[in-house]
Automatic annotation (TrEMBL):
Cellular component terms per the entry's GO annotation: cytoplasm
Keyword Methyltransferase recorded: yes
Protein's recorded name: S-adenosyl-methyltransferase MraW
Pfam families linked to this entry: Methyltransf_5
Coiled-coil residues: none
MF term (GO), any: rRNA (cytosine-N4-)-methyltransferase activity
Family named by the database record: Belongs to the methyltransferase superfamily. RsmH family.
Keywords from the named record: Methyltransferase, S-adenosyl-L-methionine, Transferase
GO aspect biological process, one term: rRNA base methylation
Amino acid sequence: MSTDQLNDPNRTFSYNSKSSLLDFRYGVEGKKAHHILNTYSLKDLTRMFKKYGEIKQSEYLARLILQKREISPVNNVNDLKEICEEGKFLYRGRNKNPLKLIFQSLRIECNNELEVLKFTLKKVPEMLKIQGRLLIISFHSLEDEVILKWARSNSQTLKIPDLAINIMPLIKACKGSPFLPSRSEIEVN
């Protein structure tokens, strides 16, 4: 995501894009967020919020959206804020803004982010030079899970007992703690 995308009110990546149609796409391909909110079934909305936002009240949130849809379309940030306020839907995590995980869910769904990440990781061994290094920065636990699963599966020696050979792993995963931002960096961001 670029600064231009964040600052473009038509992309609606910001809580301040109050009246623009919800988009959340990085490019021009795929479904816009307002389309998802206005066409997905209760089951599909619940799945999306639970899987991509890890929202415990995902079905409740999906029902609130369906109720709002019966009156008028859910098209912009203000509509989502109203749904959260009227339904008393509150996210009680570190960031108290209930829109954070809703935005995350919609962004991941619109851009098929986790599948794109998996596809990209599959290409790494053929793109990386021998002895090359790869640094991966993830921004949430869903990405962490995909990356760790990929690293585990590609860093193990494959043993074929019938042929008495071992196939060396594609990568060597570095062990150790992840790099985390400092408190001041978190405050600035």
